Amino acid sequence: MWSSSRKRLRRLEATWHQPASRSPNFSLVARYYNRVQHEPAYHRLPDQTWEDLNGELLFDRLDATVSRVGQQCLYHRLRSPLADEAALHEFDAAATLLAQQPVARGQALLALDQLTAHEAYYLADLLSRESLLSLPGARFAPLLALGLLTTLLGGFWLPVLWLGTIAFALVNAVFHFWQLSWIQHSVRPLLQLGRLYQAGQALQQAALPLRPLQQLAAPLAQLRGIVQQIALFQVEASLQSDVASPFMLLLDLIKMLLLLDQLVYARCRVAVQQRAPAIRTIFEAVGYVDCALAVASFRQRHATCVPHFGPAAEGIQLQGGYHPLVPGCVPNDLTLAGPGVLLTGSNMAGKTTFMRTLGVNALLAQTISTCPAVAYRAPFCRVLTSLSLADSLPTGKSYYLVEAETMRQLLMDCDAAPGSYLLLLDELFKGTNTQERIAANKAVLAYLQPRSWVVAATHDGELGALLQSCFVEYHFCETVTEEDWYFDYSLKAGPLTTRNAIRLLARLHYPAQVVAAAQALSAKLAMGTQSSSPQPTTPE
Question: Cα separation of 31 and 245, whole Å?
Fold first, then answer.
């Protein structure tokens, strides 16, 4: 047994140091989050922001968890930012402990390895008091079982009662098979309760100095009683072999006639309802340790820092921030103080990647107390984005309408809680004409800036002049030569002063006539814009 544990530990340690991508089934991974996302919380990351920040890919990069419970808790953590500095420091200390102490890490890995079965995903179904289905007609099961036993025993004195035994047997068989599919569906998480109990008990006995584990004594005692009640289902699951088939046939016959599955399930359902808070406490403690292990693994694979949280007056300060999903990502610095930031630059120059970098740093700072950066200091803030919208064919909504509805929700959120949002916005209202797009951008950004931290990307250079009183400009640019073109992906202060789009067409060997016509018309339009451009106005 000791040799087997040693081999398991070597395998688990190797996976922890270099986890492989698992392409998880997010409908199962998100099962816990979906059950609790409506509970009060500082923030829940909306689906649009989760998609804009490449949430599923980010999860996959972080996912060095061992157990299915850990996967679900990591997903929940990434979508539930905190505004609790003490809790984040505590989680940082847990990840640091597991990274620096191999013995403690080994104990945690072995304990969590008990919850790797696919069925462990369904433990999340047991965390509420109304978690298990009530079987139709369940109240008749005790009467039917009692009727069969009574007629069977009474037949030894009055043999005619055995006719009743036959009748009860037929009724019970029909009743059993009628409810069998419900029971098989609901018993999956019950069979994993024993594993959850063993994992929680092993973590508690390891005496790791982690607060969630120090509160497990009473919940484990409560769960022990439920584990004993589901022994019948566990025995059946463990005897699925050809050697035990005669015994299994006899056991199945007894269970069918006496409706043992229905009776045991009904008792377990009541017990789970009564002990749901204890089950949740153990579930979340186990998941907490697994999340800390995953973050410790991420830190030893990536250059990271521990975030610092300060007052809003100090703004958001990012130094050497990079995106962990972009190989060889160029790090950049930004200080977001009073004014908002307006980003300009051509496509592929790095505007959207940089905004995602800022959003990922803010998100990870408030979820796992870890930033892919040299330094990060900011106030607590809720991250909302509009980076990758699309039209909606099922609802018949145009791109512009989807944009307008998304921005309306952002405006309402910022009005409800001013000063607590980081907004990352990419080319707003690009689904409409230039004149109205610029006007709508100017109005919306000027409205949002006093109410939130705003970083907005645009191709409309006119916005810089229109918003100069409340936004500062930064840009990304490319270099185009006769022989080559390239991007340096470095953030630069000030507005973009070069235009290389048509030069890039020439570099890509467009017909010379097309390039010449485009250059001539661009120069003509630029002259007309300069002569008729309005004077910058002070935003309302």
Answer: 35
| 513-537 tens-digit pLDDT | 888 888 888 778 767 655 555 444 4
- Note whether 328 and 358 are within 8 A (CB): no
- Token representation of residue 277: 């808070």
DSSP states along 252-293:
HHHHHHHTHHHHHHHHHHHHHHHHHHHHHHHHHHHHHHHHHH
Least-confidence region, from 131-135, 296-300, 450-454: 131-135
Q: Which residues pair with 493 in a beta bridge?
A: 474
Pairing verdict, β 485-487 and 478-480: antiparallel
Which tokens hold the place of 190?
Answer: 């019950």
- Write the DSSP string, 301-365: HS--B--EE--GGG-EEEEEE--TTSTTPPPEEEEE-SSEEEEE--TTSSHHHHHHHHHHHHHHH
Reported as type and span, the H/E element at residue 343 is strand 340-344
C-alpha 149/C-alpha 356 separation (Å) is 68
Q: Which two tokens stand for residue 385?
A: 């984005």
Residue 464 identity (one-letter amino acid): G
pLDDT in tens, 279-325: 999 999 999 999 999 999 999 999 999 999 999 889 999 999 999 99
CB atoms near residue 21 (< 10 Å): 9
d(CA 74, CA 41): 16
Per DSSP, the three-state class of 8 is: helix
Cα(287)–Cα(183) distance, integer angstroms: 27
Q: Which of 535, 416, 385, 417 is nearest to 469 (CA)?
A: 535
189 or 344, greater pLDDT? 344
Report the candidate in 231, 254, 125 with the shortest Cα–Cα distance to residue 186: 125
Query: Which of 427, 295, 263, 320 minimizes the C-alpha distance to 370?
Result: 295
Q: Considering the entire predicted model, what is its pTM?
A: 0.86
CA distance to 19, 43, 50, 441, per residue, from 83 (Å): 30, 9, 18, 30
> Which residues on adjacent β-strands are paired with residue 211?
none
Beta-strand pair 375-378/453-457: unpaired
Strand duo 492-493 + 471-475: pairing = antiparallel
Burial 262-291 (b: 16+ CB within 10 A, else e): bbbbbebbebbeebbebbbbbbbbbbbbbb
Residue 476, φ and ψ in degrees, nearest 5: -115, 145
